[in-house]
Amino acid sequence: IGNSSVLICPPKSNVSMVTWKISPRVGGPCTLGYRADQNKTNTTNCSDSMNWKFTIYPKPTLEIRQVGIAHEGNYTCEVVTTEGNFHETYQLTVLVPPRLILFCDEHGNPTCEAAAGKPAARISWVLENNSTLKEQSHDNGTVTVLGKFTAYRANGTNTACVVYHPAGNQSKSIAC
To answer: Rounded CA gap, 128 and 119, in Å?
Structure first.
């Protein structure tokens, strides 16, 4: 999330036309077209964050700037050449790293929260004794995971929470 993503069409020679057909998870479909004979592009119903990124001809690619959850969906590139039509389909999935929050609850138990990640994060504790996990799903597709460390005689002991996520792992420690 927040980065740029580049999707590449199949590299072919003698390209006459390239079309990106985009079906995002949120909102309606959009298309980007390119005609080689006129060296002309056309965009229909696409956001400003999606545009052509022409690299070495004839390999036009699609660039999505500031990728967000709304960009998730199917992206199909059609390349028309003298040899035939070629397709490449991508399914874009956006990873949202969770915010790691570690605090002591009202009973003095270390509590670890992996807030608003996509997909849901996994939480574990260093020196794990006994813990409970709760998940809360949000409307935007993110998930908050709350892990509570409930070991006896943990007071004053430095306890570390580890959050595992495809966008990167994080850890913090606390003494309650």
So the answer is: 23
Homologous superfamily (CATH) of 99-175 is: Immunoglobulins (2.60.40.10)
Tell me if 85 sits within 8 A of 10, measured CB to CB. no
3-state DSSP call for residue 46? Answer: coil
Rounded CA-CA distance 115/139 in Å is: 14
The structure's pTM equals 0.77
Options 3.60.15.10, 2.60.40.1180, 2.60.40.10, 3.30.70.100; CATH for 5-92 is 2.60.40.10
Cα–Cα distance for residue pair 35/44, rounded to 1 Å: 15
Q: Quote the DSSP letter at residue 118.
A: B
Give backbone dihedrals phi and psi of 9, rounded to 5 degrees, phi first.
Answer: -75, 160
pLDDT of residue 100: 97
Judge if 5-92 and 99-175 fold alike in CATH terms. Answer: yes
How far apart CA 90 and CA 76 sit, in angstroms, is: 6
How buried is 53 (Cβ within 10 angstroms: 0-12 exposed, 13-18 middle, 19+ buried)?
middle
Quote the distance between the C-alpha of residue 159 and its chain's center. Answer: 30
Q: Residue 44 carries which side chain, given as an amino acid letter? A: T
For the chain, list residues with pLDDT below 50: 58
Q: What is the pLDDT of residue 152?
A: 58
